Amino acid sequence: MQACSRGPTVNVTRVGAGGVPWKVPETKDGSSIAVAVLSWVAVRDRTLGRAVDTAIRQTQVHLETAAATLPAEPTRADLRSYFDQVQGRGEFDVVAVGDGIAETTSISVSPSAVPPALDDAVDQGRVAALRTQVAGRPTVVVGGAIQPAGPAFAFFFPLDGVTADLALLARVLAVTSGVGVLVSAGIGAVAASGVLRPIRRTRAAVREVTSGDLYAELPVRGNDELAELARAFNRMTAALRRTVGELRELESTQRRFASDVSHELRTPLTVIDGALKVAAGDAVAADDRRLLLADAIENTGILSDILDDRLELPRHQAGKLQLETSLVSLEDIARRVRERLVRYGARQSIEIEPRGAVPAILADELRVERILYNLMENAVKYSPPESVITVAFEVRGDYLLTRVTDRGRGISPEAPAHLFQTST
Prior knowledge:
Elements: E1 12-16, H1 30-69, H2 76-87, E2 93-98, E3 101-104, H3 119-123, E4 127-134, E5 137-145, E6 152-158, H4 160-187, H5 197-210, H6 225-245, H7 254-279, H8 286-317, E7 325-328, H9 330-343, E8 349-354, E9 361-364, H10 365-382, E10 388-396, E11 399-405
Parallel strand pairs: 1-4, 8-10
Antiparallel strand pairs: 2-3, 2-6, 4-5, 5-6, 7-9, 10-11
């Protein structure tokens, strides 16, 4: 890379992918391999494309800063001052090469580290980008020059975080691809009846998701059970997109996440698969079909709840948990949760006992409902059938105390000290 005689430029060239190694997940089943590869390649291409686009945009901003702040013939001191100014904007290194001078922000990069493939594009007045290996690290290198007879710059953006995300995704796909194939194959039986076009669309959408397209959605038409299924499916894909987008926050617990999610998703996915397969039959009565579709809708909601529960703690630990607060009624929320548990087959008597008027509180309604559901569902799970579970509310100063009491076997005296420790 040499100093160039030209003015500011915004033309962009992607030189190539370079020598960045990627490993595709492997499974024993041929169809599972195909699904895993398609899913992984789709996400990889989008992720790497975004990384390169971001590096190019940042480079253009930094070059504009150089044009505005550096003199026509900058000294080493000028370049170091410029480096100090731009390095606070992100994690990257810079090499500047001018007439008789070369300056760098790190000993790990030097003018010799700039890929020769960038030279022609930069010499022709373009900002050029290349994915390559620098000092054993996958990196996006972006080169450009903006001042007549001034120095040319190369910006080195490491891809360590991206490669970690893709490696984690590969492991998750290796565990869960078999479940995706099961869903796709099961729903394939639905296509026989021309009357059930919405269910065929559901089948196609599930195939798109299993092949890596997490933006697949179903059209919502009307207000019947099929429309509700479409809305539930769209909520599920939105939850899946959030999962992929937050994989980096899950890196510290990736092995437990992969095994737990694979296990927990299997049951609702199997229910959805079975319900849709039976609902697709020509001989199924209309009332039975509505019940089957209701089961599928309910379990898509369970899928979303599982994913949200799994992501809640990492979001909080990463400091990215955002609360949407409003005035809510805990009594109303408790009654909604009771209705859900009864629909799911709870045989206990769940009594809501407000002790006096229960005031509205300022809280995140969705998360409060999830907390109450977890407490009440746990009480149902460990209480004898036909026993009584009470949910009581009591105002204590500025706080509203909520107590869930059941008739279960309880916990050992030493257990409370460990209740809020993260499991491994």
